[in-house]
Specification:
With 319 residues, the chain is α/β, with parallel strands linked by helices. It contains eight helices and 17 strands. The radius of gyration is 21 Å and the shape is elongated.
Length: 319
Amino acid sequence: MSVLVYTESEEGKFKKTALEVASYAKTVADQMGTTVTAIAFNANDTNVLGNHGVEKVLQVNNSSLDKFNANAYANVIAQAAKQEGAKVVVISSSADSKYLAPLLAIDLDAGYASNVVEAPSSTSPFTVKRTAFTNKAFNNTTIDTDVKLVGVSKNAFGVHESSASASVEEFSANVPEMGVQVESVDKVTGKVTIADAEIVVSGGRGLKGPENWGMIEELADVLGAATACSKPVSDLGWRPHSEHVGQTGKPVASNLYIAVGISGAIQHLAGINASKTKVVINTDPEAPFFKAADYGIVGDAFEVVPKLIEKLKEFKAQQ
């Protein structure tokens, strides 16, 4: 009857989202008077999960699952949930988890609530708070199926330490035949990714050309942030499409989002509304982004950003 949590990892290392969903699962387990069991695929340091409330780890060691496959992962997680008798299964709201969620819900005959931002207000009936209308509103959703599947929004619940001693058991699942094979994965290395970033610095057409992107990257480097861009910028080929954020690009739920030279089209705002604090730098005081921003600077980015970088460096030097 434990709460089962799927903890995402990459190249054997747990992602930040894995620790966040483990923290969430621990809170749910405490409400229900039970424990947390995690399932991990080819992960190395499973002990870290114990620091976030996990008491048992089902370790899947199978080289055919090194690369994510939604059908296979959903099938294996469902097997674990049935073995453990889990009535609540917790996953993240990452792109991979959103892909496997409907498949897992079907396998478990479970009701699925996505974009959950808080611990359940009630476990009987099981009721959670979710974002709606591209993060413009909230709703309270009750899941009345026997098994509940919960997708936790990034950076919504946070990572919380809750010391426990996690035992590790090898889980020998029946891995289904995979119809789609991943041959290779290309990814940026050595930089903070948009998916994991707590701070994102994003640039738009106001930067006038790709040759001016150095200051965006320098600001991001000072802040330990990921770099991003608006759709027109990626369409023009100034930046790779992997950096395009917005409703038609990657959604962003960072703690701090800095928009430089971005007017704030509705599609862009829809994709970044979940960010907690939004800062805008733009020469146009009538830019739509200012209506959505927590802080705004009306000014030339080529003057404001270098001064901001200078002040941030001075502040960090004093720490």
